[in-house]
Amino acid sequence: MSRIEDYALLGDLQTAALVGCDGAIDWLSLPRFDSPACFAALLGDREAGRWQIAPAEGGRATRRRYRGDTLILETEWDTDEGTVRLIDFMPPRGTEPDIVRIVEGVAGTVPMHMDLRLRFDYGHVVPWVRRHDDDLVAVAGPDSTWLRTPVPLRGEDLASVADFDVEAGQRIPFVLAYAESHHPKPRLVDAEQSLAATENFWTSWMAHCDYTGPWEAEVRRSLLLLKALTYAPTGGIVAAATTSLPEDLGGSRNWDYRYCWLRDATFTLQALLGTGYVAEARQWREWLVRAVAGDPATLQIMYGLNGSRRLPEQDLTWLKGYENSRPVRIGNAAADQFQLDVWGEVLDGLHLARDAGIPTDDTAWDVQLALLDFLEGNWQEPDNSLWEVRGPRRQFVHSKVMAWAGVDRAVRSVENHGLPGPVERWRALRDRIHADVCTHGYDAQRNTFTQYYGSTSLDASLLLLPRTGFLPWDDPRVVGTVDAVQQDLTVDGGFLLRYRTEHGVDGLPGDEGAFLACTFWLADALFGIGRTAEARDLFERLLALRNDVGMLSEEYDPASGRHVGNTPQAFSLVGLINTARELSGTHTETSGASGQRAVHDGTQ
Questions:
Q1: Which residues contact 212 (CB under 8 A, 6 or more apart)?
Q2: What is the distance between the alpha carbons of residues 401 and 32, in angstroms, rounded to a whole number?
Q3: pLDDT tens digits for 369-425?
Q4: Residues 407-434, buried b or exposed e (16+ Cβ, 10 A)?
Q5: Among 575, 554, 470, which residue's Cα sits nearest to residue 245?
Q6: What pLDDT sits at residue 445?
Q7: Which of 186, 192, 212, 294 is the most buried (most CB within 10 A)?
Q8: Is there a contact between 316 and 327 (Cβ–Cβ < 8 Å)?
Q9: Which residues pair with 114 in a beta bridge?
Q10: Rg of the chain on CA atoms, in Å
Q11: Pick from 104, 125, 136, 129: which is nearest to 23 by CA?
């Protein structure tokens, strides 16, 4: 299989595919992000399902790019016989999902080979394949796909294959559509018309971006990828397009990220609101309110695309995993964990949306009141932290700080927006949480906050303390914490770990790479305490980790120089957008952090 950083993304705002530099689609779940994959070679081998179109001689593409501000991928090979271009895209969803691939001759006459291996249910089921008029139909259980192309196809080794030549100026289409097997034949789109419509869709969407300044191209590409991770019917945004790409190559730190995490809310809202995408921010806020409605005691850290709660975790034993990284997991048992920070994240996100002028109704405030009632009675409880540790629950400092932030946003909602609530009681609670954190979560001898009460270990989430407004950037405790975190958690290249796995706090074997979102936080923190040149240098090194089409995964392994973890990772993309805005002076503050930033003189 390809390296994780060799993949590009196709998407239709309901699901996504990964395409390698060899012209192979190695990952695609249909019909939704969280559906079983029909191409799962990413987590096994080609017998788990893939669709490759490439020159007959094979090999890695000479170059590739997205066409302008779109998700239309153009992959080119220079061969001895000539040059050929493969145009890949997914039209924004109509009634059913489609993948369109157009082979275009650029120069000479190039022999081509196509190999389509459909394997439903994550590579577990080989479909029955037959002809239906001009189309090739594959059916198994609830799933069916329909392939249309003018190229003659033949069956070979439980695959549909074709060999053909493409001449300069010639364009040969392949259209694959999906439908539930009990439904009528789907309408197969016209490849050329669909290409024009898809280009218009993405170009029109990007026209709403109002970010200008340094790193504009990088911000725009990250916004496109973030949009591609949006589930359009509900407005939910998945954490990544994949499952079980390892944080530790060959290890067991493999998780399903095709769900929506509540803690991403504030960061994502800042990125969307700060670049002109108010409609997307509103949809995300509305998804958030719907998802968390109900008993606040049963709030989950993540939900399904439509707000569903049951995400049972299971292992797919027939898949060997990416580079033998087992187990391959679907579902996510962390959904059942108690992570205290989530209550604060939701309250902070909803307050940010209100401050930004996004229209709301009484329901949002009623939900916040219920969340505050729970927070008031449970903020002292130990939890599993934002890192979803599978070890013992502890009094994690970041969790307490976010509890403080949730109460603080309630106070500010009363003060700034005139909403009803027991503000004096909330002010007293806010002060009590603040004092508790400063007493038990701060190591005065080392001048740093710690990962959890009574520990000596550190955590990258401590960099977020001033961002929430808990303390100002120029507080000596903040400066000391930034210095300590950078010194203790930095690995080769200046990138940052979440925490030291050798301390055993997460209850898991193995190690992991540098966490990219945390490294963006470090760049923000360095900027916040006035070390501007260092912040910019770190940000540029982070940008250099992007692959040739702007993709970032969850983590980076400096030892091997490779991306690790699920991809593309929304948290990493949002980190890039927000840090670019921060360093360029176009950041959107939460009300908690405004007015507390250090003064910069533009030097070190």
A1: none
A2: 36
A3: 999 999 999 999 999 999 989 889 999 999 999 999 999 999 999 999 999 999 999
A4: bbbbbbbbeeeebeeeeeebbebbeebb
A5: 554
A6: 97
A7: 186
A8: yes
A9: 53, 162
A10: 25
A11: 104
- Token output for 474: 């120029």
Residue 212, SS3 per DSSP: coil
Q: Name the burial class of residue 486, with classes exposed (0-12), middle (13-18) and buried (19+) by CB atoms within 10 angstroms of its CB.
A: buried
- Report the number of secondary-structure helices (H) and strands (E) in the chain: 14, 26
**Going by C-beta distance under 8 Å and a sequence separation of 6 or more, which residues neighbour residue 221?**
66, 549, 550
d(CA 579, CA 577): 6
Q: How far apart are CA 322 and CA 83, in angstroms?
A: 32
Residues 592 and 236: their CA atoms lie apart, in Å, by 25
- Residue (of 166, 53, 54, 62) closest to 109 by Cα position: 166
- 242 in the Ramachandran plot: left (φ > 0), alpha (ψ -120 to 50) or beta? beta
pLDDT at 588: 56
SS3 461: helix
Neighbour count for residue 604 (Cβ, 10 Å)? 10
Q: Where does the pLDDT of residue 599 fall: very low under 50, low under 70, confident under 90, or very high at 90 and above? A: very low
Cα-Cα-Cα-Cα dihedral of 401, 402, 404, 405, to 10°? 120
Q: H-helix or E-strand containing 26? A: strand 24-29
Largest Cα separation within the chain, whole Å, is 78
367: amino acid identity, one letter: V
**113-132 pLDDT, tens digit each:** 999 999 999 999 999 999 98
Tokens, residue 588: 């959107």
Tell me the DSSP string of 505-525. Answer: TT--SS---EEHHHHHHHHHH
Angle at 474 between CA 375 and CA 350, to 5 degrees: 30
Place of tokens 């932030």: 405
CA-closest candidate to residue 127, choices 109, 145, 110: 145
Q: HSE, CB side, 13 Å, CA atoms: give it for residue 350.
A: 34
Residue 501 has a pLDDT of 87
For residue 67, the SS3 value is coil
Using CA atoms in the order 496, 502, 508, 511, what is the torsion angle rounded to 10 degrees? 50
Tokens of 174: 């392949």
Distance of CA 572 to the CA centre of its chain: 7
3-state secondary structure of 63: strand
Cα-flanking dihedrals φ and ψ of residue 425, to 5°?
-65, -40
**Three-state SS at 18:** strand
Alpha-carbon distance of 324 to 319, in angstroms, equals: 9
Strands 135-140 and 143-148: antiparallel
Token look-up 């016209």 returns 190
Helix (H) / strand (E) element for 368: namely helix 362-378
